[in-house]
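Lecture 7 notes: from sequence to structure.
We start with the chain below.
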Amino acid sequence: MSFFGNLGKRMIEAREREARRHVSNVLLSLDDASLNGMGLSRHQLKRDARGAHSSVML
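Predicted structure tokens for the same chain:
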């Protein structure tokens, strides 16, 4: 992949991570019953809100 193609890909990935963190923070304002009803766990949302992710950046 070209330099600019790789740069664009990295920028999009960074914005996606930022969006995930923002959504996780908003969802954390809901009560546990609502989160469970959506199949979400508070623990996972807290991880996502801090920016922890399972993929490895190479």
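Points to note: The CA atoms of residues 8 and 14 lie 10 Å apart. Residues 54-58 have pLDDT under 50 and may be disordered.
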